[in-house]
Amino acid sequence: MTINRRIFRAYDIRGIYPSEINDEVALKIGRAFGKTRKGTVVVGRDGRIGSLKLYRAVIKGLKNGNSKLKIAAVGLATTPMFYVLVQKLGAAGGIMVTASHNPKEYNGFKVVGRNARMISGKEVLKIISKF
Q: How far is 116 from 118, CA to CA, in rounded Å?
């Protein structure tokens, strides 16, 4: 499957679920991100219809990308809670499954590094292309 490059935005990754954002995309994002991290990665999700499946796929990808990675799977959380957890845990980064304020047919990911520093969707696309 070819990932639609249009989903990789300036501040996040988002698209229509499940045609543009789906388990396969989540798995690839998790795997590539996991290969670039050491330590703990926080993973959270919102309450959208597809978020639980995407959350599970991201975690599976992280594990496949780096078996030594510690995953803090926090489950249902708000994005601000997710950011605080990344900081409080001193995590190497995190992935939040959410499409934020977008309509219900959307889903996506907010990806952060240490100190909850935002990693743009375009940066994530570069990481994926390396693997």
A: 6
What percent of the chain is predicted at pLDDT more than 70? Answer: 99
Judge whether 91 lies within some domain. Answer: yes
Q: What is the CATH number of the domain that holds 74?
A: 3.40.120.10
Domain membership of residue 1 (yes or no) is: no
Distance CA(127)–CA(124), nearest Å, equals: 5
Per residue in 94-119, pLDDT (tens digit) is 999 999 999 999 999 999 999 999 99
Strand (E) or helix (H) holding 96: strand 93-97
User: Residue 62: enclosing H or E segment and its boundaries?
Assistant: helix 51-65
67, 100, 120, 129: the catalytic one is 100
Instruction: Decide if 100 is catalytic.
Output: yes
Q: Is 70 exposed, middle or buried (0-12, 13-18, 19+ CB in 10 A)?
A: middle
End-to-end CA distance of the chain: 15
Domain span holding position 57: 11-130
